[in-house]
């Protein structure tokens, strides 16, 4: 995408952008074993969920459930295209009650959504990564990047921290590791 924009504008990609891309690729490559195969439930606005679903598939994660309150068959079709071959349930015009029922039927490793998803996360003991709008129970959300390579790095950090915090919490004493 960045290269296509630079080509269209007839300019070079700035060195800092190339550097940030390299950092993101390095982290994803180094941490792939923690992402691979993790089942994720997503809830939020359709424009963010399409990009987020594509990003998670790129990480090797499985977007098991993708729910938005906004109705629209285009959304469902696009998510189906992005998750082709993966066991994904998608619902436009859905709600948190539906998502919670799906999770009760078959749990996930992680939930990514706004503040309202914390009730499901607590009830089902599933780590939550707050993403999207609104985030009203944490401070500073608006100060951190959510787009571009820096936004990708921030999201990878939040996802990885949630996964590793759960791994640390649930590890037996002899399996508890100081370093990765």
In the CATH hierarchy, the third-tier topology is known as Rossmann fold
First-last Cα distance: 32 Å
Instruction: Count all strands and give the number.
Output: 5
In which order are the strands of the major sheet placed? 3-2-1-4-5
What is the number of helices?
7
CATH level 4 superfamily: Nitrogenase molybdenum iron protein domain
CATH architecture annotation: 3-Layer(aba) Sandwich
- Total domains, how many? 1
Low-confidence stretches: none
Rg measurement, Å: 17 Å
Shape, please?
globular
Question: Structural class of the helix and strand makeup?
Answer: alpha/beta
- The share of residues in extended strands comes to 5-15%
Mean pLDDT: 93
Helix content: 40-55%
Largest beta-sheet characterization: 5 strands, parallel
- Mind telling me the CATH class? Alpha Beta
SSE sequence, one letter per element: HHEHEHEHEHEH
Structure description:
The chain has about 180 residues and is α/β, with parallel strands linked by helices. The chain has seven helices and five strands. A five-stranded parallel β-sheet has the order 3-2-1-4-5, sandwiched between helices. α6 links the parallel β4 and β5. The longest helix is centred in the last third of the chain and has 23 residues, at about 150-170. It is globular, with a radius of gyration of 17 Å. The model has no long low-confidence stretch (mean pLDDT about 95).
């Amino acid at each position: 995408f960045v290269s296509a924009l630079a080509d269209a504008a007839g300019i070079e990609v700035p060195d800092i952008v190339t550097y940030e891309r390299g950092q993101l690729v390095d982290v994803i490559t180094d941490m792939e074993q923690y992402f691979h195969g993790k089942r994720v439930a997503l809830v939020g606005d359709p424009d963010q969920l399409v990009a987020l679903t594509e990003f998670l598939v790129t990480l090797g994660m499985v977007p098991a459930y993708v729910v938005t309150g906004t109705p629209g068959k285009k959304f469902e079709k696009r998510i189906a295209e992005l998750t082709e071959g993966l066991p994904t349930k998608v619902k436009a015009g859905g709600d948190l009650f539906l998502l919670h029922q799906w999770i009760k039927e078959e749990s996930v490793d992680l939930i990514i959504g706004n503040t309202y998803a914390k009730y499901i996360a607590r009830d089902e003991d599933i780590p939550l990564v707050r993403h999207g709008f609104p985030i009203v129970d944490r401070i500073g959300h608006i100060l951190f990047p959510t787009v571009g390579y820096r936004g990708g790095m921030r999201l990878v950090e939040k996802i990885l921290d949630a996964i590793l915090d759960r791994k640390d919490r649930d590890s037996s004493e002899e399996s508890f590791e100081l370093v990765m």
